[in-house]
Design a protein that fits this description.
Two copies of one chain form a homodimer.
Chain A (H helix, E strand, L loop, with lengths): L4 E7 L11 H13 L4 E4 L4 H10 L3 E8 L3 E8 L7 E7 L3 E8 L5 E8 L9 H8 L1 H5 L10 H24 L7 E8 L1 H8 L21 E2 L12 E4 L9 H10 L8 E6 L3 E6 L4 E6 L20 E7 L6 E5 L7 E2 L1 H13 L18 H10 E4 L2 E7 L10 E4 H24 L9 E5 H6 L2 H7 L10 E5 L1 H11 L1 H13 E3 L6 H9 L18
Parallel strand pairs in A: 2-4, 5-8, 8-10, 11-20, 13-22, 14-16, 20-21
Antiparallel strand pairs in A: 1-3, 3-4, 5-6, 6-7, 9-10, 11-12, 12-13, 14-15, 17-18, 18-19
InterPro entries (chains A, B): Corrinoid_activation_enz, Raco-like_middle, Raco-like_middle_sf, RACo_C
Protein name (chains A, B): DUF4445 domain-containing protein
Organism (chains A, B): Desulfotalea psychrophila
Chain lengths: 535, 535
């Protein structure tokens, strides 16, 4: 009775002339006795016909299916037999990708999983251009009518609803089910995505003082959002804290367990932005910064998201100068993802092919013969600039070459410097040292694929024992799964929202100073990185 | 803040970088402070866009419009100015007629009123034939699937929804408004009509042990029922007690005020059935019986409901033998309604044209010259049987004659006997005398038009001072109005439902004995009617 939809055994007496309580009142009265909390118990109007029929057919004894909401229980089904499976869908509604799992709410088993591109991309790659599209008409109308709905906003809502329905179709098909079998949906996404999903005006999100239209929304239902899931399925939208602190991060905090931990921990989530949270069960402090793009494959010309054909791992033997790489799916390389980039740049530094500023060394000046030979093969000049060829054109597989240019390297250095500056500004804010952290949870594809040692070599992550780092995967999705399964997690969301302090880095002088100091490999102050060799 | 939709003044602080609470959260927080009860406060998803826009446009200060529900407050609108009018519609959903009023929930003013025929009549004149139509397919299927919906039931639901929409259109047009301006609807109807309105299977209503599918239903919304009123308008369905004790009677009890009275009162509501309730604020006992048809114009060939052209008043001068009548709307007569029938039969008794058994006396045997002349003019033989011509064919107005046949008289006597038997059985049940009653409220068109003295003459109502009788009009509609306006009335409904005891007359031996005793004018025991002359 913890999951957002659960089944409860009911054995009611059979009606008679002496006991002529109406069928649904009879069911309700039994549930009052069984559940016995002070929440109201109602029977969903949309399900009354089927509940009443099944209740009678089952001889007034069987299993009631209930939406387990904060202030009410809502009966949404009845069956003679205990249901083996109650299907819930957890969704990470990302700006670029949707990722979801189908869960059995009876036991937490994963029934299927999958992902899709966010088709809103055709209206703008990033949050700002989406807001722009959603408010195109509104921006022309000084004082829009109360019932004015921007066609661009409608369009974005429609598109995302379709995408969710498509993903639901995909996941249920994989599990041999129908979308209407989905009895609950949880959604974690950033604040803008949540506004767009609900068709709510995002106009003020990107305008000072950056006020969202909502942070908390009541539990909705499938039919309110025109979703193809069960019409009365509760739709839980993860609450947010502000324009730049969305439900995806609340979800991540929830998934990391840090808000339940006595000892202080850190959570790093690298998406389009790098979002970092520090705290414990007593307090939470968070900030975000533009450290992400280079790491998520958004900057390098050959950069790409972690996906089939992405080079996710690179090594260069420090003496033999042998370059090895591995692609996701073991197919011919088509690009390089964040973890591959970190591996590559760390290797280029350790093999001294780039200097501490992240600039390619001139192969012509190289003294070491083996290194010179390797450089000759991989460091080529294009339009006068040096670049590193990870892999050449492969005529067999019809694949392009994968190349790292100086411009990509520079972006990478900025990103890693931003990341380290964020982490140090944040830890300094609360007067702690990195060494006092119990854990640093690294979320996302970034967390799953990177080698923390290489990130430390670059000076991106603090120089701590590797055991401190834990990859927690798509934490936004993991949190969404948690709220489906666990009533305490749903309540914790509210607790997290109200205990988070947000540190604004855009106006933070300390951050800017720390950022400058971090634009070297590993750092202008090498004593911060004792494990990294300095050349 | 008593009505089911009400407005509340809110003055919130303006957002800033220091106070970046989301707009709708800001509104909600203010309301928590203002309303301060333990009910949840949510903002209706469907209204979020307009509420947010108006809240901003009004500078975060103005009037929130709230649905005032039992366990929650739901914000459904916002305006800078205090709304003058909040429109609610109260509906008496009768088996044959719909009657409604449009109210201003701000002050209880009636904005317009009107009525329509229940267009379900084309599928059956009475409850049983409607249930038959609604379950036509289901009766053929031994074990229908859980999602099986009878097409006949769908049809009846569609028809009644259309009729309500039409009536809403009529009433709002009269008040210079639109149907979507209706912000709340209350419905009182019998249990079958409530089932048909909600499209819920009435199959078991007329089958032993006569179990309704529901007696209580949560507050629904306009859009759930596809009504043309505001989509988020709360739709309050008056609860019922059982198959034969519907929300219309609960509404009547509410309107009569008897459930709030320390002294015992009686309520008589004559519709298709005669429904009678006895009680006070401590206890209520009710019963129903088939006393109605003759009184509602459902039996006599010339009988009709109170409406234009219905003879509603008849007198015959006891010495001059002059017959006078009045029709509703003062138009040419087309039939005779319940009150006219009672007047007529009482006058026929007092002028000795019928005997104590309600049989026409033979005009040929009449001794009195004046009476003989009158009888000759009005008492004619058709197919060998005597009948009384109230008014002959009128060639000018192209109107038919209005005639009372012996068969109509017999039905009338049965009805009045049933009525008196019901009343005496009920009062005897609790060991009281009629003289102990503080009031007898007589509801409906019947109550509005009848002359209680004439009903006493016939032995239909007990021989009490006329001041004891009070006509309360359409009590089902009055109760529906009350729940829109008064929070306590909404709670009282629940109290009434749980305190009513229902007395089953169909299996009641005492009732049958009393019925036989009452089949004379005024009664086999004339001492019960000291004010009535015995011939």
């Amino acid at each position: 009775m913890n999951s957002i939809v659960c089944s409860v055994f009911v054995a009611a007496t059979v009606p008679s002339l002496q006991d002529n309580t109406a069928d649904l009142d009879r069911l309700q009265q039994e549930l009052v006795t069984i559940l016995g909390d002070n929440r109201s118990i109602t029977i969903s109007y949309e399900c009354m016909t089927s509940v009443a029929r099944e209740f009678r057919a089952a001889g007034f004894t069987g299993y009631a299916l209930l939406n387990n909401l904060e202030s009410s229980w809502v009966v949404v089904g009845f069956s003679a037999e205990k249901p083996d499976i109650i299907v819930g869908m957890a969704l990470d509604l990302g700006t670029t990708h949707l990722e979801a799992t189908l869960l059995n709410l009876q036991n937490g088993d994963i029934l299927s999983e999958g992902n899709l591109e966010n088709t809103q991309i055709s209206f703008g790659a990033d949050i700002l251009s989406r807001i722009h599209h959603a408010t195109a008409m509104r921006r022309q109308q000084k004082t829009p009518a109360a019932d004015f709905q921007d066609p661009g906003l409608d369009e974005l809502k429609r598109v995302i609803i379709s995408a969710i329905n498509e993903l639901a179709e995909l996941l249920t098909a994989r599990a041999g089910m129908k979308t209407a079998d989905i009895r609950a949906l949880s959604v974690s996404g950033n604040t803008t995505m949540a506004h767009l999903l609900l068709g709510l005006d995002p106009f003020h999100l990107c305008r000072e003082p950056y006020i969202p239209l909502f942070n908390r929304v009541p539990v909705l239902s499938g039919n309110q959002l025109q979703l193809a899931i069960h019409p009365i399925a509760p739709v839980w939208i993860m609450p947010s804290v502000g324009s730049y602190f969305g439900g995806d991060l609340i979800s991540g905090i929830l998934a990391s367990g840090m808000a339940q931990s006595k000892k202080t921990r850190m959570l790093i989530d690298v998406g389009t932005n790098a979002e970092v949270v520090l705290g414990n069960s007593e307090w939470l402090i968070a900030c975000a910064g533009a450290a992400g793009p280079a790491l998520e494959g958004g900057v390098a010309r050959m950069g790409m998201r972690a996906g089939p054909g992405a080079i996710e791992y690179v090594s260069i033997h420090p003496e033999k100068y042998e370059l090895k790489y591995r692609t996701i799916g073991d197919v011919a390389p088509v690009g390089i993802c964040g973890s591959g980039l970190i591996d590559l740049v760390a290797a280029l530094y350790l093999t001294r092919m780039i200097d501490i500023r992240g600039k390619f060394r001139d192969p012509a000046l190289e003294q070491d013969a083996a290194r010179a030979a390797f450089m000759k093969e991989h460091l080529v000049r294009r339009d006068g600039d040096l670049c590193f060829v990870v892999t050449g054109i492969n005529t067999t597989t019809d694949c392009d070459e994968v190349v790292l240019e100086q411009i990509d390297l520079d972006a990478m250095i900025r990103s890693k410097a931003a990341m380290y500056a964020i982490l140090t500004t944040l830890i300094n804010q609360v007067g702690l040292e990195f060494s006092e952290l119990e854990e640093i949870a690294v979320a996302g594809a970034f967390g799953r694929h990177i080698n923390p040692q290489h990130a430390i070599t670059l000076g991106m992550l603090p120089d701590l024992p590797l055991s401190v780092y834990r990859a927690i995967g798509n934490s936004s999705l993991r949190g969404a799964e948690k709220v489906l399964l666990d009533e305490r997690a749903r309540r914790d969301c509210e607790k997290i929202v109200s205990s988070v302090t947000y540190l604004e880095l855009n106006v933070n002088q300390e951050f800017m100073i720390r950022f400058s100091g971090a634009r070297f490999i590993p750092h202008t102050d090498p004593s911060l990185f004792p494990s990294v060799p300095i050349f």
